[in-house]
Specification:
Elements: E1 16-20, H1 26-38, E2 54-58, H2 69-72, E3 74-77, E4 86-89, H3 90-96, H4 98-107, H5 114-120, E5 123-125, H6 134-138
Parallel strand pairs: 1-2, 2-5
Antiparallel strand pairs: 3-4
Helix pairs in contact: 3-4
């Protein structure tokens, strides 16, 4: 009888994945990103272990949005005090806080536990094409 192999946290092999968001749809980029962050693309996926990879998204400001979402969709913040609810339109967040927009959307696709918080820390988002992680991508090409 064949037994299922359960991966332990110290046995996980992490890779660095680069995603170029230029011309791609926002939601499709994030579903792919959430899959990589959780590690569901690996045959050794274990739900209770953070076995995902590091994900770097570049050109985040050039992502496409379908429909009229740039004008209609709003993100709300609430500090806990009465009357402190504030809203920002998606278009404004894309211009001013691109990295925060991608992290908010990715957070909604990950587990709402401490494991999900650890997975989200492996997401790096940059509005332009420059990023400081080039050493991680070039280490295999010697």
């Amino acid at each position: 009888m064949k037994m299922t192999k359960v991966v332990k946290p110290h046995e996980v092999q992490r890779d660095w994945i680069l995603i170029d968001a230029e011309g791609q749809t926002f939601g499709r980029i994030l579903t792919q990103t959430a899959t990589y962050l959780r590690g569901k693309h690996k045959p050794s996926f274990t739900p209770n272990v953070d076995c995902g990879d590091y994900v770097v998204i570049i050109n985040a400001e050039k992502a496409k949005f379908t429909g009229n979402k740039l004008n209609d969709k709003e993100y709300f913040t609430y500090s806990g005090y009465f009357g402190s609810t504030k809203s920002k339109k998606l278009g404004d967040m894309l211009e001013n806080h691109t990295e925060k927009l991608f992290k908010l959307a990715a957070r909604g696709m990950l587990p709402k536990t401490n494991l999900g918080k650890a997975m989200l820390k492996k997401l790096k988002v940059y509005a332009g094409s420059e990023h400081p992680h080039t050493a991680q991508f070039n280490k295999g090409s010697n």
